[in-house]
Write a structure and sequence with these properties.
The protein is α/β, with parallel strands linked by helices. The protein is 44% helix and 17% strand. The structure holds S-adenosylmethionine (SAM).
Length: 293
């Protein structure tokens, strides 16, 4: 398990969350911890609204890449999409498989591919999917490897939906390195067969999530870590000194990054761009297939 996966699992366990993405804080939703599940549901609703409608001749095959706990995957199945998931996390895969039990819609039993998207064996999936969805998972995948795999699994006129954080190039230092460089992403997409059909900047709609996380890190996690440190230093001074010598620098760096107070909603808005993108492989009127906001 790497540190990013640990972060996702801790967030899920600490806040009892079913979704692992940002929340969407529209329409006067009060920014407080107890509203995170509602804000996350609004984020999922936003994505589902972007999916091409099944009324226009479905069924549609969907690949949910980095499907988290399987929450969105199951919602898609409930709506009649023939959806499968990709997930490299052993821990999350147990949750997803549990959720998928009994979820198969008529004619489709959802598959879970327990691997990284980069390692997906596409030999039996060539040209299979109408839609490949990355809900806050694109940042974890090398762009050129993602593009290669998309070329294999997408139908000729298939759609790619990406909703994720990207890093901006600018004078402000990015305190947390998350998200691909937007500039690099555009450059690589320009050299690919994908054609853009939608681009929405939703940074301001999701950024209040950062204010909540910052509050939790500063006012709950940091004091809890300080108390644990004081306790251990008093009870086990030798072990504590040893642990500090071995992992102290790395631990301090992680704490400074996440609890240091540098990562605020304002810094996020200045250094990141949270985007919804849709791309198609096919020529013609792809934009008509993605609902406008
Ligand atoms: C922030 S979570 C988003 C989860 C889910 N899509 C959602 O919207 O709630 C990131 C997801 O990407 C997955 N992931 C990380 N690296 C990946 C990779 N290389 N290939 C596919 N999925 C990956 C993680 O296991 C996790 O499920």
């Amino acid at each position: 398990m790497d540190s990013r996966e640990l972060g996702l699992l801790l967030a899920r366990q600490l806040f009892n969350l079913d979704d692992l993405h940002f929340g969407m804080w529209d329409e006067g939703l009060e920014v407080r911890l107890s509203n995170i599940p509602l804000a996350q549901q609004r984020f999922s609703d936003y994505l589902i609204d972007k999916m091409p409608s099944l009324d226009e001749g479905g069924p549609l095959r969907v690949l949910d890449v980095g499907c988290g706990t399987g929450q969105l995957l199951c919602r898609l199945l409930e709506r009649g999409y023939r959806a499968d998931g990709v997930s490299p996390s052993h821990t999350l895969n147990r949750v997803i498989l549990e959720r998928l039990k009994g979820m198969a819609t008529v004619g489709h039993k959802a598959q879970l591919f327990p691997c990284r998207f980069e390692d997906l064996d596409t030999s039996s999936l060539t040209g299979l999917y109408d839609i490949v969805l990355f809900s806050e998972s694109f940042q974890f995948i090398k762009i050129h490897r993602a593009l290669e795999k998309l070329g294999s699994v997408l139908k000729p006129n298939g759609l790619v939906l990406i909703c994720d954080t990207f890093s901006l190039t600018g004078p402000r230092q990015d305190p947390i390195r998350s998200g691909h460089s937007l500039e690099k992403f555009f450059r690589l997409i320009d050299g690919s067969p994908l054609r853009q059909v939608a681009d929405e900047d939703i940074t301001q709609r999701v950024s209040p999530t950062i204010a909540l996380l910052e509050d939790v890190m500063q006012n709950r996690v940091k004091p809890a870590l300080d108390s644990a440190h004081h306790y251990l230093r008093g009870r086990h001074p030798v072990m504590t000194r040893l642990a500090k010598a071995l992992w102290g620098r790395r631990f301090r760096r992680t704490c400074d990054r996440h609890c240091g107070g540098d990562y605020t909603q304002q810094t996020f808005e200045a250094t990141k761009s949270y985007r919804f993108f849709a791309y198609t492989l096919g020529p013609g009127k792809g934009s008509e297939r993605v609902a406008a906001s």
